Amino acid sequence: MDLITLITTSFNSLMVNKLRAILTLLGLIIGVSSVITMMAVGRGAQVAVTQQIQGLGSNFLSITPSLEQLGRRFFFNDNSENPLNMSDYYLLDDQIFAPNIGLVAPENSFSGAVLSTYSGENTFINGIGTVSSYLTVRNLELSFGRFISPSDVINISNVVVLGSETSKILFNERNPIDAEIKILNRKFTVIGVLESQEGTLFNPDNTLIVPITTAHYRLNRGSGLSNSIPVNAIHFLAIDKGSVSDAKEQANMVMRLNHKLQENEENDFMVSSQQDTVETLEGTESTFLILLGSIASISLIVGGIGVMNIMLVSVTERTREIGIRRAVGARRKDILLQFVTEAVIMTFGGGIIGVVTGSIIAILIDGTIISGEIVNTILEPFTGLLALGVSVLIGMFFGIYPALRASTLSPIEALKYD
């Protein structure tokens, strides 16, 4: 039997029971379209987050407590001394010790109730304590007013810079410059408001920023010399893109010396660059994409089982037809190929429709907002070809058993079947 005749015969056989074929195709269409849509959403999220990280600057680096330190704090509620403090910041900010490091900005945190004396609005906030270089290091911009100055840090001034959303909550659309708010029952003067950072990875819109000394001594009620002020992270910029590796090595050396770590001792801190973050993220999100694809592929397998079920029913219904074909000279191979071809035609058709449907869904949901987050989708030809190829392979796999069963029927017994 030539290929054209084989395909035509198989297609005509499927059209005998159109409704049954359509219902079988439905499972495959849902499976393939789910794979296409979920992979497009996952890939879109991966690219969006990667772009947001890179948007901080290719020469941006951070120092944070080591994973071991963070684990002890999170899982065992270990409130031992923070391994990072302001002495690390001062040394990193010294060009003699770290010539390839440019601006440096430490970051501390606090939380508590904030009250606007203008509107009476009260809200809970997670705030940041830092220094004047923070604005540049974090690639932020002011909407109006000014940022924290070096003298504010030295004088432990009660001044505050508001995130855009915090400003709206406390002052509506009114200009809050020189207005007073209360943070943990302490009066602060508003000196600036940040531009909205909506859509970026680091988003300070719902926070506020004060001098790091003020955060430590007045809001966190800390004590000690300024060198001993604990910090959650230290962010810094390499002097240029080509100096990132050198800046990272110098930061590592300065930190180890300042922490008096011996050669055989592990770091109690981590130095990470944007590239490190992107590579880690890509590895994590690749695993996530595989997980998404695996979950969506379950419906493809279910569709394949449906194909096998329908093909087995078809073999039973067409037993007499198979007997007649065998009696007039059809070989076992011809019967086997016909039923396998029917399964492949069915899964190929379902795959094509599924790819088109999934692509349309991905295009329609691109840019929509779900739970306050923008959904980005990216369609890649490879995903469609892979999903289509898998659907065809599923058709072949689940179609072989019914085809073998059909090809092994005895012509005499098949002709007797009623």
What does the model show?
The protein is built from 14 helices and twelve strands. The two termini are 27 Å apart. With 418 residues, it is an alpha+beta fold. The strands form two sheets. Strands 2-3-8-5-7-6 form a six-stranded mixed beta barrel, surrounded by four helices. The protein folds into two domains: 3-53 and 279-416, no CATH class; 84-267, no CATH class. A hairpin with a 5-residue loop joins strand 2 (101-116) and strand 3.
Features:
6-stranded mixed barrel; alpha+beta; 14 helices; two-stranded antiparallel sheet
Brief summary of the model shown:
This protein has 418 residues and is an alpha+beta fold.
